[in-house]
Amino acid sequence: MIIERNLGSWSEFRAVIDEIRQTYGYHEYLVGNTQTYKEKNIVLFRGQASTQWLLETTLERKTDKKFTLVQYLSKATKIVHELESYMGIKWNLLDIPDLQQEIIKKSDDLFGPFLPCYEYLVYLRHHGYPSPLLDWSESPYIAAYFAMCDAYQKRLLPDQRVAVFVYIESLDGTKSFDGGPLIKVKGPFVSTHKRHFIQKAWYTIAAKWSAEHQEFSFCSHHEIFDKPPSIYNQDKLIKITIPVADRKLALKDLDDYNINHFTLFQTEDSLIKALSIKNFDID
């Protein structure tokens, strides 16, 4: 179940983020009989330029084919020699039979798939290769930038809006699985492209056990998010919508925080895009 928060203006965004973080950002647990501790929850943000768009990975946008983990890795690792030759990087990936054995050994049909060569998959994701990794940010303002950056506004439709999604993995620090579709969170601790750290990136994968293949297949995140409320305190999704009419104000505020295309990508192309947004969208 997705909770929707429709803001009247961009100016309300900070207060809503503060409220969400105060409500869901921490959980308490008891040590012994008296000592209470607070621990931080995983709260992630993702911006999308239209409220009509689903939460889809680049792999889902590329093809309707449903891949098992091994099927996807077969495609992804097939190109590694070309990348190593061109980039001068050695990934030292296992062959597919060895990767398959590692997946079988370390996966669990209840608690989720083991994702090998994570560093390599993040690299591919950041360079445009279709990926089962859905990218998020620890920063709501980076997410808001990605929502507003390419939002179409030349001919605005009535109440046209962008969306910033908030994902809370667990409200109490625990996670339960019932054997159905599940979301697995992959953290930021990986050596990869610098933009991964600049954008404060995290990732999720959605998967379910395939009895036919006896392994995990990737599925839509909405198979989890669109279900009725769970008895478990987990996988909470909040959809914040903001009027596109406030795009100029939002981009100006975010640029004041030094959040723009160049600071998030740091390439020649991103510098030109940042300058074009400054000259045509903000000034």
Outline the structure in words.
The protein is α+β, with helices and mostly antiparallel strands and 283 residues long. Helices cover 37% and strands 23% of the residues. The protein has helices spanning 13-24, 58-62, 69-78, 80-87, 96-106, 118-126, 140-149, 194-198, 222-225, 247-256, 261-265, 268-282; strands at 2-6, 26-31, 35-40, 43-48, 134-137, 161-170, 182-186, 201-210, 215-218, 234-243. The strands form three sheets. A four-stranded mixed β-sheet has the order 1-10-6-4. Strands 5, 7, 8 and 9 form a four-stranded antiparallel β-sheet that branches. Strand 8 (201-210) and strand 9 form a beta hairpin. The radius of gyration is 20 Å and the shape is globular.
Total strands: the figure is 10
Shape estimate:
globular
Number of domains: 2
Radius of gyration: 20 Å
Chain-averaged pLDDT? 90
Q: Mind summarizing the main beta sheet?
A: 4 strands, mixed
- Cα separation of the termini: 40 Å
The total count of helices amounts to 12
Low-confidence stretches: none
Could you tell me the strand content as a percent range? 15-25%
| SSE-based structural type | alpha+beta
Percent helix among the residues? Answer: 25-40%
The string of secondary-structure elements, in order, is: EHEEEHHHHHEHEEHEEHEHHH
Strand order of the largest sheet: 1-10-6-4
